[in-house]
Design goal:
Layout: E1 3-10, H1 14-21, H2 31-35, H3 38-47, E2 51-56, E3 71-74, E4 78-79, E5 94-95, H4 98-110, E6 116-118, H5 125-135, E7 145-151, H6 161-176, E8 183-189, H7 206-218, H8 220-225, H9 228-235, H10 245-251, E9 256-267, E10 270-279
Parallel strand pairs: 1-8, 2-7, 2-8, 3-6
Antiparallel strand pairs: 1-10, 3-7, 4-5, 9-10
Helix pairs in contact: 4-6, 6-10
Bound molecules: 3,4-dihydroxybenzoic acid and fe (iii) ion.
3,4-dihydroxybenzoic acid (DHB) is lined by residues 12-15, 59, 190, 194, 196, 238, 268-270.
Length: 282
């Protein structure tokens, strides 16, 4: 059976991708952030996953407000990186894992989740940036197949944090019931705290971010028990996307070891983080 070998967490701030495109990763502003991502890349190189389930939200690029699924599973063989308005980026398309996508959708339904099924979609910075932070920029092909798992954190009503955590439990069941011996990672993306609009635009909460990074490993039930309003209050209206890390955490065992954690503030208007979790039981 397939195996989950790690839970990864990453911000997906678009300016991180822009910094890489412009070759700015080693300048004084960006170096402290990118230095903290090397350990995540080293872990991935050492552990060689075959498949990455990437939990993220589309940002009005592929789904617009006219149609927003609460949860959606990618069942495509290929995902093109979307042009978000600055022109095409020099990153390869992502190879999908349609067989696992269909298995995941079916397994979620068996476990009382009913996702939208997506056979054709382009993917935005929500997936592009975390993939590059963990896997670097490949010349021709990414070293893993990807399965996008979309969560609506944009158009209210967004799901409960507790529901995201439970979705992670169901994702774990799907991985462990998939035939074969592929090695999976789950990447939870987004955050950390940020608010891009309204009266609190520019709001960042580094203290709450640092507490989140401790709790997501040691006490995820606490984060799952918070309300959606708590997420907006603590982490900002866009920081509410941090609840997607709970999908990743819910897929892991209760007992995890923190292999790596990194926090840098700010990247653009956001507290930026990376994390690598391993199951204590291996
Ligand atoms: C920013 C952060 C995000 O997570 C996002 O989706 C868009 C923008 C930012 O800080 O600029
Ligand atoms: Fe975002």
């Amino acid at each position: 059976m397939a195996k989950l070998i790690g839970g990864l967490g990453s911000s997906h701030v678009p300016s991180i991708g822009a910094a890489l495109d412009k070759g700015l990763s080693q300048n004084a502003d960006w170096k402290p952030f990118f230095d903290g991502t090397v350990a995540g890349q080293d872990w991935v190189k050492a552990h060689k996953p075959d498949v990455a389930v990437v939990v993220f939200n589309d940002h009005g690029n592929a789904f617009f407000l006219d149609k927003v699924p609460t949860f959606a599973v990618g069942c495509a063989e290929r995902y093109e990186p979307i042009d978000e308005g600055w022109g095409p980026r020099a990153i390869p398309a992502f190879e999908g894992h349609a067989a696992f996508g269909w298995h995941l959708a079916d397994s979620l339904v068996e476990n009382r989740f009913d996702p939208m099924i997506v056979q054709e979609i382009e993917v935005d910075h929500g997936m592009q940036v975390p993939m590059e932070l963990f896997f670097g920029r490949p010349e021709t092909a990414w070293p893993v197949k990807v399965v996008p798992l979309f969560v609506n954190v944009i158009q209210y009503p967004i799901p409960l944090p507790a529901r995201c955590y439970e979705l992670g439990h169901a994702l774990r069941k799907a991985i462990e019931s998939f035939p074969g011996d592929e090695r999976f990672v789950v990447i939870g993306t987004g955050g950390l705290s940020h608010q891009l609009q309204g009266a609190r635009a520019g709001f960042i909460n580094p203290e709450a971010d640092r507490e989140f990074l401790v709790d997501i490993a040691a006490n995820p039930a606490k984060l799952a028990a918070l309300t959606r309003q708590d997420y907006v209050r603590l982490y900002g209206s866009e920081g509410a996307e941090m609840m997607m890390w709970l999908v990743m955490r819910g897929a892991m065992d209760e007992a995890v070891r923190v292999h790596h954690t990194h926090y840098h503030v700010p990247a653009s208007m956001t507290g930026a983080a990376m994390m690598v979790l391993e199951n204590v039981a291996g």
